[in-house]
Specification:
Blueprint: H1 5-13, H2 29-34, H3 57-69, E1 73-77, H4 81-92, E2 98-102, H5 107-116, E3 119-123, E4 127-128, E5 131-132, H6 137-146, E6 150-156, H7 167-176, E7 180-185, E8 207-210, H8 212-215, E9 223-227, H9 233-243, H10 250-265, H11 268-283, E10 296-300, H12 308-317, E11 324-325, E12 329-333, H13 340-352, H14 376-380, E13 384-388, E14 401-403, E15 408-411, H15 419-427, E16 431-432, E17 434-435, E18 438-442
Parallel strand pairs: 2-3, 2-6, 6-7, 7-8
Antiparallel strand pairs: 1-9, 4-5, 8-9, 10-12, 11-12, 13-18, 14-15, 14-16, 17-18
Helix pairs in contact: 1-10, 3-10, 4-5, 4-9, 6-7, 11-13
């Protein structure tokens, strides 16, 4: 039974006087009443250790987390998976000036390419059942043969829909040519319990990021950066010094350790959660996307001719809030701590929905893939101007823009903005890459 080292130290601290160091709330009575986490909100002291140069409880916690994930080294992040993505790409930039990335990479991957001068080589998967699949291994081989200067590939596994990338094949192809496999595993931290099945990113990746807060009992922004290639450790440590905050939230840090150890200490929870989730899927009257990850349940309302956005609104009226609707699928984003009663309640509500009035509202979205990414760096480093979406069609995009969640570009810098893309961005409930409804385009010369 592994101890919760950071949390235990914070609980000891909660009994001490807090008037003589940061943070400024000093655990005052009114503040502590509004924010119950206040008593364990601490700063870097000899007593509490320091995430930037751990020597005590944080050091021990990270060592034990590496043992759990199977990594050579693990580093707690309190800035979300984004700081980990930036760090792992920074770590490989000395080895080349290009990186292979799936077109549906998170925006942080594209941002890293811009920051570090890495030209993205876009790998385009195929659409199956309306979902973009991971690129085929043979495509990665062809891209490596066609592009000199590639230092690494970034894979997404699992993705939002639970698709598991063919990491074993990627790793074999990349290692044969001396390249690194980086994995954005932001949606798969819980899969460390599935190491034997080979679907966890850490089985094959040289560096990978776990978004602990997404699928573990961890506070928001808690994540873990893991390294398997010891040769990359100096670069990773340098990167963490740049991209991690120098004032990490100790409650978040403690919750990262807790999330992994809680599942490690209570392995039976995973088996029980899988059974509950499976019952949930079988009890609803709609098809479910064939996910490779038990915690992702994408209900196919589009297959029944219903726009999933409308089903989402009906569920919200009844107190059910899902992770995402893409027009066809409504994503129930679950975890090993999924509550059986809540799942049963949700299933009963779904079964009771009166959706006949929405029949025929589903319209398939265009299955669009980006260009090869060859114009990305030139576009993001060019002069640009902001124009309204109505005037953007036909112009060259200068900054990525897309929909969030899942924070994936609808148009990539260097691409021509189409009427179709304008329509997608205008209809998006939440979009990124826009400034007061304006989009960045290359300035005409």
């Amino acid at each position: 039974m592994l101890k919760y080292r950071i949390y235990d130290r914070l609980k000891e601290y909660a009994q001490c006087d807090k008037c003589f160091h940061m943070p400024g709330h000093k655990c005052a009575a009114e503040f502590a009443k509004l924010f119950p986490v206040a008593p364990i909100d601490i700063t870097e002291l000899e007593y509490s250790d320091n995430l930037s140069c751990p020597q005590n409880v944080i050091y021990s916690a990270q060592q034990e987390l590496a043992g759990i994930t199977g990594a050579k080294a693990s580093f707690i992040l309190t800035d979300g998976s984004t700081s980990g993505v930036l760090s792992m790409l920074y770590a490989v930039k000395p080895y080349g000036n290009k990186v292979i990335i799936p077109v549906n990479c998170h925006q942080s991957v594209y941002n890293a390419c811009k920051l570090f001068g890495l030209e993205p080589v876009i790998a385009r998967g195929e659409f199956v059942n309306g979902v973009l699949m991971p690129p085929r291994p043979e495509q990665i081989y062809k891209l490596l043969s066609a592009h000199s200067g590639v230092c690494a590939m970034v894979a997404i596994s699992p993705d939002y829909y639970g698709n598991i990338a063919p990491l074993a094949e990627y790793s074999r192809i990349l290692k044969a040519q001396g390249k690194f496999l980086l994995v954005d595993g932001a949606h798969g931290a819980h899969l460390f319990t599935e190491r034997k099945s080979g679907i966890y990113a850490g089985v094959y990746a040289d560096i990978w990021v776990d978004g602990a807060h997404k699928t573990l009992p961890t506070l928001t922004q808690g994540a873990l950066l893991n390294v398997n290639d010891r040769g990359l450790l100096p670069h990773v440590c340098e990167a963490l010094g740049i991209f991690r905050t120098s004032s990490p939230g100790y409650p978040v840090m403690a919750s990262v350790e807790y999330g992994y150890k809680y599942l490690f200490n209570n392995a039976e929870l995973v088996t029980a959660a899988k059974a509950r989730i499976e019952r949930f899927k079988k009890s609803i009257p709609f098809a479910v996307y064939p996910s490779g990850d038990y915690a992702k349940v994408a209900v196919d309302f589009g297959g029944a001719g219903i726009n999933s956005d409308l089903a989402e609104k009906e569920l919200q009226k009844r107190g059910i809030y899902c992770e995402m609707s893409d027009g066809r699928y409504l994503l129930f984003y679950l975890s090993p701590t999924a509550d059986g009663k809540s799942l049963q309640n949700a299933a009963e509500i779904i079964c009771g929905l009166k959706l006949a009035k929405y029949a025929g509202t589903y319209v398939p979205k265009p299955e669009k893939c980006a260009a090869d990414g060859s114009g990305y760096l030139e576009a993001v480093n060019s002069e640009y101007e902001l124009v309204s979406l109505e005037k953007a069609a036909g112009r060259v995009c200068a900054r990525n823009a897309g929909i969030t969640p899942p924070c994936i570009p609808a148009v990539i810098a260097g691409e021509i903005i189409t009427e179709e893309t304008v329509g997608v961005l205008k209809s998006a409930k939440n979009a990124f890459g826009l400034c007061d409804g304006l989009i960045a385009v290359k300035k005409c010369v």
